[in-house]
Amino acid sequence: MRQICGGRGLGATIRRDETTGEIYVARVIHGGLADRSGLLHAGDRLVEVNGHPVFGLEPEQIIQILAHSHGTVMFKVVPITNRPVNNQTMLYVRALVDYSPQQDPAIPCADAGMVFRRGDLLEIVDQTDALWWQAKKLPCSSACAGLIPSSSLLKRKQREFWWSQPYQPHTCIKTCKVHSGGSGLSCSLRCPSSCYSALANPYEEVVRYQRHPEDTHRLIALLGPSGVGVNELRRRLIEINPKTYQGATPHTTRPLKSHEEPGREYHFINRDQFENMAYNQCFIEYGEYRGHFYGTSVEAVKDVLTAGKICIIDIEPYAIDAVRTHELRAYVIYIKPPPLDQMKRTRVNSQLITSYYTTRSFKDEDFQEIEEAGRKMEQHYGQFFDHVIVNDGLQASCVQLLTAIRRAQDEPQWVPVSWIRPTVQF
Ligand SMILES: Nc1ncnc2c1ncn2[C@@H]1O[C@H](COP(=O)(O)OP(=O)(O)OP(=O)(O)O)[C@@H](O)[C@H]1O
């Protein structure tokens, strides 16, 4: 079967049955001209267009007839007898991949297709066709829907693409930072499962969620390229209002120092206990530094939340999966570097903390590294950012952060449906 379309103009696609030569309306685009007229329906058999019999014509010939029509276009159709009832419930999804109909030779009609980018919110208005859905982008800017590949079709495309790529041994050495009172430690970590998550699900089903005032606060997870100012912003926020904001106390296997108190700077545990916790997936992220383990546990975050405070942590991107859960419902804020020249201007008097606990002025290479790391982070994880703050001036960034956190707690947000109905399969 071949399909053609009247594109955005007509708002319908037609197909030719290759065995009989009959022409049928394949689909009517929601909100398009044909849909609004209420006169054409998917499955109707097309007999004439502007007096031209269409039986046996090539689809392209019908397009030509339409293209040369001016003013009113007359269709003679035999209506479908049993029109399917659209009793599908509304479906909202977050796109986890990019899609461009112009680059997809398989789409029945590129003009009727809809471009989307990772992170876009889509309202699926029609899933009658198992392969091609109709969707609108949120917030709805257009009354007319566009064609997008269904979840199963996109998965198939991803699998085909993946197999067509040359084999590359995949090692993911990530660095993480475990912060306590402003100190940063680097360590290497295991490979994140999220590497392949986009391959598994191109769309994430979402629902509108409004935190009930009596519910615990949402966890705020900050992330950004090393050196952009994630820790500085987190520290300042807690300093401004320690009664409202608090970090999660990390666990460590290193010995207690004389000025420290168990449970204040760290929860001090032995290696066996740490390994046991790691084995039981108690940590959001963890790693090793100079022979000792450090990690932030889910329980440490929950302790802050159940005490009625807003827990604010900084995470490495690989830990996004561990905080975007039914249990923690994290609001993920990406701290983005400003353009290079602006970054240089604002950091003239700032000190970079190196992995050896020394400080030094920023160099040109540091700014380039931050920019590059930020670009990669957005490219790989941008679809999971609930909010983005460009850390230009520190004061302005702090204000933006406070506003974003207030919104996360008080205003409705789109969240994964699994947070609300944990057993739902999509
Ligand atoms: N907007 C800004 N303007 C000027 N200086 C800033 C700004 N944001 C952060 N800084 C400074 O940049 C330095 C690095 O910031 P910070 O330690 O918070 O980075 P980070 O993102 O947490 O990196 P890392 O993860 O490597 O610790 C600090 O000295 C901080 O005061």
From TrEMBL:
<dbReference type="InterPro" id="IPR001452">
    <property type="entry name" value="SH3_domain"/>
</dbReference>
<dbReference type="InterPro" id="IPR020590">
    <property type="entry name" value="Guanylate_kinase_CS"/>
</dbReference>
<feature type="domain" description="SH3">
    <location>
        <begin position="88"/>
        <end position="158"/>
    </location>
</feature>
<dbReference type="Pfam" id="PF00625">
    <property type="entry name" value="Guanylate_kin"/>
</dbReference>
<dbReference type="InterPro" id="IPR050716">
    <property type="entry name" value="MAGUK"/>
</dbReference>
<dbReference type="Pfam" id="PF00595">
    <property type="entry name" value="PDZ"/>
</dbReference>
<keyword id="KW-0728">SH3 domain</keyword>
<feature type="domain" description="Guanylate kinase-like">
    <location>
        <begin position="217"/>
        <end position="406"/>
    </location>
</feature>
<protein>
    <recommendedName>
        <fullName>Membrane protein, palmitoylated 4-like</fullName>
    </recommendedName>
</protein>
<dbReference type="InterPro" id="IPR001478">
    <property type="entry name" value="PDZ"/>
</dbReference>
<comment type="similarity">
    <text>Belongs to the MAGUK family.</text>
</comment>
<dbReference type="InterPro" id="IPR036034">
    <property type="entry name" value="PDZ_sf"/>
</dbReference>
<dbReference type="InterPro" id="IPR008144">
    <property type="entry name" value="Guanylate_kin-like_dom"/>
</dbReference>
<dbReference type="InterPro" id="IPR027417">
    <property type="entry name" value="P-loop_NTPase"/>
</dbReference>
<feature type="domain" description="PDZ">
    <location>
        <begin position="1"/>
        <end position="81"/>
    </location>
</feature>
<dbReference type="InterPro" id="IPR008145">
    <property type="entry name" value="GK/Ca_channel_bsu"/>
</dbReference>
<dbReference type="InterPro" id="IPR036028">
    <property type="entry name" value="SH3-like_dom_sf"/>
</dbReference>
